[in-house]
Amino acid sequence: MRQHGDPNRDYAAEWKKWRKDRGWTKIDLARALFICVRTVYNLESGAHPPGLTCRIRMAKLQKRHREA
C-alpha cells in the first residue's frame, strides 16, 4: 500500500504559500526538490499528493530556510 502523508493536510496550499512567501518560482522549487516543474504544477494544483521522498525533501528545505 502506498502512503501519501496525512490525508487531512492540504499539501498543495501549504507548499504553494511557502514558495510564494519566499518569492520563488515553480522552477526554483523544482530545482530545490530535484523534481520536474510539471510535478510542482501537479502538486500545487492538488492533482496528486506528494510522495514520501518529495515530502522529506520539502521538510529539509523548509528547515534550512527557517534556520537561515
Describe the protein:
With 68 residues, the protein is mainly alpha-helical. The chain has 4 helices and no strands. The chain has helices at 11-21, 26-33, 37-45, 52-67. The N and C termini lie far apart (37 Å).
Instruction: Report on the biggest sheet.
Output: none
Counted beta strands: 0
Helix proportion range: 55-70%
- First-to-last CA distance: 37 Å
Mean pLDDT: 90
Total DSSP helices: 4
In terms of topology, how is this protein built?
Layout: H1 11-21, H2 26-33, H3 37-45, H4 52-67
Helix pairs in contact: 2-3
What distinguishing features does this structure have?
single chain; 68 residues; globular; mainly alpha; 4 helices
In short:
The protein is mainly α and 68 residues long.
